[in-house]
Amino acid sequence: MRFTFRPLDPLKDAELLHSWVTHPKAAFWMMQDAKQEDVERAYMEIAGDEHHHALLGLLDGEPAFLMETYDPAHRELVGLYEPEPGDVGMHFLVPPTQTPVHGFTRAVITAVVARLFEDPATARIVVEPDVRNKAVHALNEAVGFVPEREIRKPEKKALLSFCTRERFERAVAV
Length: 174
Known about the structure:
It is built from 5 helices and 7 strands; from the N terminus they run βααβββαβαββα. It has helices spanning 14-21, 36-47, 104-117, 134-142, 165-172, and strands at residues 3-7, 52-59, 62-70, 87-93, 124-127, 146-152, 157-164. Strand 6 (146-152) and strand 7 (157-164) form a beta hairpin. Helix 1 crosses helix 2 (36-47). By secondary structure, it is of the alpha+beta class. The radius of gyration is 15 Å and the shape is globular.
């Protein structure tokens, strides 16, 4: 699968995103009760934030997943760990589908991590999924993330994990 990326447009993409983030399978995204205006507002804030970015991943030109990146020295993890130069935080969301494709989510996370490592300034990717999200822990591990420890964020108990370029390359080498 070959994915492309484009910046998320909070106004044009709000309806689509709303259908994704409010679906029961997106419970860990914590927007279950959001109205479309709430989703639009949240992504307008991200669009105006120099330390947080949102992209849509496209498959054959059609939106297939959401990717967010952030600077953990300024967002999400401030005060919860000691950031290093080159650290980049990441979230991704694969929407539910009526016709699941085996291996799709793993292909998505592989593409997301590869995209982040395209930037030579990225030394390490940081994630902090909910400790209960076993499926994403397995996906993270499959692409080279190593859990460090559990942390308490205001909205959840999270598993702080890191992936270096070398670990990613070893994990996805075929």
